[in-house]
Design brief:
The chain has eight helices and six strands. The chain is α+β, with helices and mostly antiparallel strands. It has a single domain, classed as Ribonuclease Rh, Chain A (Alpha-Beta Complex). β4 and β5 form a beta hairpin. The radius of gyration is 19 Å and the shape is globular.
Length: 217
């Protein structure tokens, strides 16, 4: 009986391992299929993390709505991270220059270290690509100037992005939530920064009937 139980447990573990995304660390830079552009709802970041850390991003003088979390190299299944690259790291000035759309130079450095190196691009080119990708997506005006807290289904946020961005399809965007709040819009782009459908492991749509979007500060 004990041998049978162990065999069944091993089988379940193997099935879960087969279904899990294929991700590792330290892959070869430049070997990926497409990008995921991650846009974070800044008020949610501030409520969940930033306020406690006294992040400058959360100061009301900035009026941040959706900010650039990152531009992530992605494979059709799984994603690379912390890749080996011969490219030099960005300078402090280069990462600090991303604060206007990312909230901080520290985030820009972290994103380069974890994701940017996997692009195979020089640091300056990767940061420029991230800025170009951010500029290529129109933030729905209703959210860019949201002046009050609202609760709404994630599909409403998705539909607003689809309306504001011709060429973007429902298969190319996913909206995530955390702790009852809308957290990110993730949009899939080709290596040439054109809209495309996401791989199956990127689709993590928020299933809550209603999620909070706090007002832009």
């Amino acid at each position: 009986m004990r041998q049978s139980t162990l065999s069944a447990a091993a089988l379940v573990a193997a099935l879960f391992a087969a279904a899990a995304p294929a991700l590792a660390e330290g892959e070869q830079a430049g070997e990926f299929d497409y990008y995921v552009l991650a846009l974070g709802w800044s008020p949610s970041f501030c409520a969940l993390e930033g306020d406690a850390r006294r992040e400058d991003q959360c100061d009301p003088r900035h009026d941040h709505s959706f900010t650039l979390h990152g531009l992530w190299p992605q494979n059709e299944r799984g994603w690379p991270s912390y890749c080996h690259t011969a490219q030099r790291d960005p300078t402090r000035r280069e990462t600090a220059a991303m604060a206007d759309i990312m909230g901080s130079g520290g985030l820009a450095w972290h994103e380069w270290k974890k994701h940017g190196r996997c692009s195979g691009l020089p640091a300056a080119d990767y940061l420029a690509a991230a800025r170009a990708a951010y500029a290529a997506v129109t933030i729905p005006p209703v959210f860019a100037g949201l002046d009050r807290d609202v609760t709404l289904p994630a599909r409403v946020v998705e539909e607003a992005f689809l309306e504001a961005n011709p060429g973007l399809t429902p298969q190319g965007i996913t909206i995530t939530c955390e702790a009852g709040m809308i957290r990110e819009a993730r949009i899939c782009l080709t290596r040439d920064l054109e809209f495309r459908a996401c791989g199956a492991d990127v689709a993590r749509d928020c299933k809550m009937p209603n999620a909070l979007m706090q007002a832009v500060r």
